[in-house]
Write a structure and sequence with these properties.
Helices cover 39% and strands 13% of the residues. It has a seven-stranded mixed beta sheet with strand order 1-7-6-5-4-2-3, sandwiched between helices.
Length: 257
Amino acid sequence: TYGGNAGRGAYRLVVETSRAIECARSEVAAFLGVHDTSRLSFQPSATQGLNLALKGLIQPGDRIVVSGAEHNAVRRPLNQLAAWGATVVIVPTDDRGFIDPDAVEEAVSQEPTRAVVCQHVNNITGVIQPVADIADIAHEHGATFIVDGAQAGGHIPVNLDTLGADVWACSGHKGLLGPAGIAVLYCAPGTDPDELVSGGGPGAGDEPFQPADGPSRYESGTMNTPGILGLAAGCRYLSSHSTAIRSEEHRLTSRLY
């Protein structure tokens, strides 16, 4: 139905596709508690979004504090940044897999820290980390708080306007019930990583560089229209069924225990 290439022209099919994508952005943003839709960009995967944030915000010489339970989507980019001259400090989990906020504060307070990185929900154990407490600690010490929310969206209530994350990335094909190959990246006001990819896209026009503002800065290339609209459909479904889904997950978890 929407076969135009968003932002590439002014004929009817392109305009309709562009409008459909922006409507989808508004639906996904509303479901995740994002008031300013310009802070939410669509990405090919949460891995891509996390790479964008980490490599767009962290420079050689910066210090990063990270939990010891991260997915490779965080661990490997940080290893690469460490090879380029960043310092990565790992805070181990306790014996249940939780990150102790006091341990994070101890690590952050030792030296100036550029970023604190933590998962929202663990992909192996299902542990829900105390991200709101860690956000407060990071901000008290002037650090940017980056959250891997790949396993959180759709499974637990998320309100990004109040969570405290400066960056939050989430897969679309997991709890948000979208198709594969789509994800979202939220960057709070004042947090603007350098783009990872440059090129054509909505709002690019004939300027020599990427747009400085808005999601188009991070959406170079042809947009994944089917993925974006499918993700919005998943969020619409969850808006009326998420409580029942969580109840069923809790029932199955209790049965497993």
